[in-house]
Amino acid sequence: MLDVVGECTEKSYKQLIEQSLSEEQRQQVTAVALDMWKAYANAVEERLPQADWAERHFDKWYSWAIRSRLEPIKKEARMIKKHLPNILNYFKHRISHAVAEGLNSKIQTVKANTRGYRSFDGFRNSILFYCGGLDMRP
Question: Contact, 48 vs 92, CB < 8 A?
Answer without folding.
Answer: yes
